[in-house]
Each structure stands twice: as structure tokens, then as C-alpha cells.
Specification:
It is built from nine helices and two strands; from the N terminus they run H-H-H-H-H-H-H-E-E-H-H. By secondary structure, it is an all-alpha fold. The chain has a two-stranded antiparallel sheet with strand order 1-2. The radius of gyration is 35 Å and the shape is rod-shaped.
Length: 227
């Protein structure tokens, strides 16, 4: 999964949303369009739109540019009235900048934590689905293996341990042919073995088709959450 593209989910910062809402209200009260404001702060109309929706981050310099363009105090962008002296305003501005930086740092940490748990969940989900698929494949393999064993015994070939490996579910077909190709029952065994093989391939194809869709969902899930 290491080559899959990593896409972070977008999370809105409540502080950016609050400032954005105040920005939209102040801009409309001044009769200024998004395009006009964008020109004054050297940004795009789309940027102003996203700022007002809280979709992109407000930096300190951007806040001051917007406040200057609107002819208001930065306090109004934070939803506070301007009643203090300039010295008090400057002090509060510094406090607000510090608080804004702190809260955004906390918000970033929380987003990283959420993303971490999403990654853990994604990995666990992918592991579970992969294990289930491997179990289904093994079931088919064991089913085919047992079927060969049954017809092997049915046609009187009694040296089972020579040609069957119960640990790896493997039938040594080439060795069997070398020893019994001239046996009276060899042809009947081969016919039934071919029938078993065809049934096995058919079931395996069905399993593959069913799981291809699941694999697609796994990849999509991994692309969203895994690096």
C-alpha cells in the first residue's frame, strides 16, 4: 500500500469560521463585493469566498490587510467592539494573535490525532479483509485437495502418503503419472480429476470476481487515510 496516494481530509477550524463569518458581515455592511476586497488585499475572489466560509486559514498578516481594506479594527473581525485606547488595543491584538496561534496549534494536533486513529482503523480493516480473502482461497484449495484424495482411494491407489502432502495441501501429480500412467484405472482417475479441476477453477473465478470489487474499496479506503 506504500505507493498509494495520500489525501488528507479537510477540517474547518472553528476560529477561522468565526472570523470568516464576521468578515462576510462587515464586508456586506460596507457595500464591498468579494472581488473588490480581493483586489485591495491582492488576493483572488475565490480566496475571499473560502475565507468567509472558514475553509482556509487566516494568518495574522491577512487579518490586518483585511481590517485595513475594510477600514475597521481587527477587533471587529474577532467579533469585539473597539472601545479601548490604542495601547490597550495593541496589547489585546498581541494577546489575540498569541491565542489564535495557540488554538490553531491545538487544532492541528487534534487533526493529526484523528488522522492517526483513522490510519489505524484503515490498516486493521485492510488486514481483516485480506485475511478473509486468503481464508476463502484456502478453503477452495483444501476442498479440491480432499476431492482428489477421495477419487485416488476410490480407484484403488493406496499409497496416499507418497503423493499427498497434508501440510501444504499438495498433490504430486507428475510423480503420480510417472508411476501409474499404465494402470487400468488411471484414465478414469484423470477424467474425474479434470472434472474436479474445472469445478475448482470455476469457483475460484467466482471468488476472484466477488473480491475484485472489495479490493477496489480497500484501495479507495487506503488512498483516503494511508500515506
Amino acid at each position: 500500500m506504500s505507493n498509494l496516494k495520500y489525501n488528507k481530509q479537510k477540517h474547518k477550524n472553528p476560529i477561522d469560521e468565526k472570523i470568516g463569518t464576521n468578515l462576510a458581515t462587515l464586508r456586506r455592511s460596507k457595500g464591498i463585493t468579494q472581488t473588490e476586497l480581493a483586489e485591495q488585499i491582492e488576493a483572488s475572489q475565490d480566496t475571499i469566498s473560502k475565507l468567509e466560509k472558514g475553509e482556509i486559514e487566516f494568518t495574522a498578516s491577512r487579518i490586518f490587510k483585511i481590517a485595513s481594506a475594510l477600514g475597521v479594527s481587527v477587533y471587529l473581525l474577532f467579533g469585539e467592539e473597539q472601545n479601548e485606547s490604542k495601547e490597550e488595543q495593541d496589547r489585546k491584538i498581541k494577546e489575540l494573535e498569541k491565542e489564535l496561534k495557540y488554538l490553531k496549534t491545538i487544532n492541528a494536533m487534534l487533526k493529526d490525532r484523528v488522522l492517526y486513529f483513522q490510519q489505524v482503523k484503515a490498516k486493521a480493516r485492510i488486514k481483516k479483509i485480506t485475511e478473509d480473502y486468503e481464508k476463502e482461497q484456502k478453503k477452495l484449495r483444501v476442498k479440491y485437495y480432499k476431492g482428489i484424495k477421495e477419487i485416488f482411494i476410490k480407484f484403488g491407489f493406496d499409497d496416499v502418503s507418497t503423493f499427498f502432502d497434508d501440510k501444504d495441501y499438495h498433490f504430486y501429480e507428475n510423480e503420480f503419472e510417472e508411476r501409474y500412467s499404465k494402470s487400468p484405472n488411471y484414465r478414469k482417475f484423470k477424467e474425474e480429476n479434470e472434472r474436479l479441476k474445472n469445478n475448482w477453477f470455476s469457483e475460484a473465478d467466482i471468488l476472484t470476481d466477488e473480491w475484485e470489487e472489495i479490493i477496489k474499496r480497500i484501495k479507495k479506503y487506503a488512498e483516503e487515510y494511508l500515506p
